[in-house]
Amino acid sequence: MKRLLLTAAIVMTGGLAQAAEITILREVDSNNYDPHKTTSRAASEVLFMMGDTLVSLAPDMQTIDTGVAESWSVSEDGTTYTFNLRQDVQFCDGKPMTAEDVVYSINRWVDPETKSPVAWRAGEVESVTAIDDYTVEYKLKKPFSELLYQLTQSFGTIIDKDTVEALGPDFGVTGFNGTGPFCWSEWTPRDQMVISKHEAYDWGASFHANTGPASMDKITWQIVPEENTRTVGVITGQTQVTQYVPYIALEQLKASPGVEVVQSDLAFWTYFMGFKIDKDTVSDPAVRQAINLAVDQAAMSEDLFFGVVQPAYSYVSQEALDWNSDLDDQLLKYDPAEANRILDEAGWARGDDGVRAKDGVRLAPTAYVFAGSTWGKISEAVQAYLREIGVDMQIQAFDATVAWGKLATQEFDMFGMSFPYVSSGDALNLYFRSQNVPSPNRMNWIDDNTDALLLAGATAITDEDRQAAYGEVLEIVHDAAVWLPLYHEPMVIAQSTDLETVVPHNIYGAGLYKGLDLKFRE
Questions:
Q1: Cβ neighbour number for residue 210 with a 10 Å cutoff
Q2: Model confidence over 168-204: pLDDT tens digits?
Q3: Which of 272, 330, 336, 370 has the smallest number of Cβ neighbours within 10 A?
C-alpha cells in the first residue's frame, strides 16, 4: 500500500496559523510539466496552479473572464484580437510580466520546432506582437470561433523565456517559472509534485472567492494508483481532497463522517479505445465494427463504475454543442451475434484456440493503456468481451511518465484514452485533424474531407454553418468506427469537511483549477 507522505496541517504558533499544507491524491503523474509538450490532464492540474493564461474560463464552462489580460477586443472579421494586459503581474522569481512574455509564450507554442501536439489550439497564427509593454496583438490567418476558449487552456500558459533557455530540455522537468498562485518546489516523477504559495499573487479572476494570494502555503500532489489507498486516505483524514474517486467507494465516502462529496455535470469527459486504422487487423472496418458490437458499455458502467458514469456509444456526449442528432438511431450498441456474423462474413475464421485469423494473420491486436486501476479494469473488461467473438486483444500498460511517449509511436493497434471537451468541435479538432498525426490523432486518420469540414467549422461565422460542418465530421468518423466509445464521466470530488466546499471546475478535467479557493474552514 502506497504511503501518504503529507497530511494537511495547520501549525499553530502563539495562536496564529503559520502554515497551511494540503495533500491532493491522484492516480497517475504527467510525463512533464511543459505546457506546450504534454496533453496530460495531470500536467494541466498543476500548470493551472503554477501559471496563468491570457483569459480564464468560469466554472460554468461558458463565460470567458479575465486572466493576465484585463480586457480585449476582436476585429469585425474575427482575425485580430487585441489584449490589454494587467500591469501588476509577476513571475514566481519576482520578475514583472510584460507583453514580450506573452508573445514569447504563444510563439513557442506554435513554433514547428517545439513540436507541440496542441499547436492547433492556438489557431492559424499569422503573428503575435507586442504593441507596447502591456498590449498584445494576436493576428490569425483565418477566424477561429473557439480561440478565446482555447486560450484558457493550460497550453496557453504564460512562461518565462529565461527559465526555458536556462533549463533547455529539462524545462517542466526540473523547474518552471510561472505567474500562477503557486510556484514549483520539487517533482519526484511517479511519486509527488510539491508546489508552494506565490506570495505576491493577487490577480485571480473575479469568479474566484479568493483572488489571491492562495490560502494554502504548500500543496503536495501525491500519486496513489491504488483505489483502496485513496479511499482510506480520505476517510481517515490522511488527505483532504481527491477527484480520483473510486466509484465502488462512492456511497461509503458519502456516508463517512468528515467527508463531503461534490459532483458537477457541467462539462464532458469521455473514455474510449481508438484504432490505428492503417495497422494489420484493425485496418479492416469489419473488425472495428465488430469490436464495437462486442462490448457491453451499459454492463461495464454498472459493474465497474456502479452506475455513476453514463455508457457511451457516441464519440462525444449527445448533450454536447453541435452533436449530430441524426446519428442517435445509428450508433453501434451491444450485439455479439451481429459481431460474430460480420467477422464470419469478412473471412475472419476461428482457429482451434478460438482466436480468429485471416490470410495467416491472427486477430490479436495490441492495445496500449495507462497503468493504474482505472484502465486496468477497463481494458481487462474489453479484453474479456472480445474473446467471446474470437478477438485476442493483448494489453500493454505503461506508467503515465512514459505512456505519452509510447502513444506517439506506431507500435500499437489500439489505445486507451480519455479526454475533456466543451463542444463537438473542440473534440473533433483535437483528434481527427490530419496535422495531429501521430499525436493526438493516434488513429492515423488522414482524410481531406474531414480536414476541410473541420476548417469550415472552426472558421464558421454562423452557428448553423458550424453545426453542419461538425455534424458531418461526426457522421464520417462514426461510420468508419474509428473508436470504441466506453463511457461519459462526471466530475466527482471527495473532500474533508475541514475544507470549505470545493466548487468543481471542469476545464480539461482539472477539478481544483488554480487552487485559490482551497481553504480550511475557520
A1: 17
A2: 999 999 999 999 999 999 999 999 999 999 999 999 9
A3: 330
Strands 491-496 and 259-264, bridge-based pairing: antiparallel
Distance CA 505, CA 522 (A): 23
Q: Are 29 and 247 in contact (CB under 8 A)?
A: no
Q: What is the phi-psi region of residue 469: left when phi exceeds 0, alpha when psi lies from -120 to 50, beta otherwise?
A: alpha
The mean pLDDT value for 136-153 works out to: 94
Tell me if 58 is assigned to some domain.
Answer: yes
CATH of the domain at 371: 3.10.105.10
Tell me, yes or no, whether 435 and 500 share the same domain. Answer: no
Phi, psi at 149, each rounded to 5°: -60, -45
| Predicted TM-score (pTM) of this structure | 0.82
219 shares a domain with 309:
no
Does 2 reside within a domain?
Answer: no
Q: What is the pLDDT of residue 267?
A: 67
Nearest CA-CA partner of 243 in 505, 517, 519: 505
Domain assignment of residue 369, yes or no: yes
Looking up cell 510563439 gives 107
Residue 301 in any domain: the answer is yes
Residues 319 and 370 in one domain: yes
CATH number for the domain harbouring residue 233: 3.40.190.10
Give the closest residue to 389 by CA, choosing from 333, 338, 347, 330.
Answer: 338
Count of domains for the chain:
2
Are residues 433 and 299 both part of a single domain? yes
**Confidence band (pLDDT; 50, 70, 90) for 62?**
confident
Crossing angle of helices 285-294 and 336-345, in 10° steps, is 160
User: Which string of DSSP letters, residue by residue, matches 167-202?
Assistant: HGGGBTTTB---SSSEEEEEEETTTEEEEEE-TT--
Task: Kindly state whether residues 112 and 150 are assigned to the same domain.
Answer: yes
- Which range has highest mean pLDDT (233-237, 289-293, 315-319)? 289-293
Cell of 202: 493577487
Give whole-number Cα distances, 39 to 128, 211, 396, in Å: 23, 27, 20
CB atoms near residue 188 (< 10 Å): 11
Q: Please write the tens of the pLDDT for every residue from 319-339.
A: 888 999 999 999 999 999 999
Give the range of the structural domain holding residue 403, as residue numbers without chain letter. Answer: 268-488
* Among the listed residues 481, 487, 486, 488, the one whose alpha carbon sits nearest the alpha carbon of residue 339: 481
* Same domain? 66 vs 186: yes
Q: Which helix (H) or strand (E) holds 214?
A: none
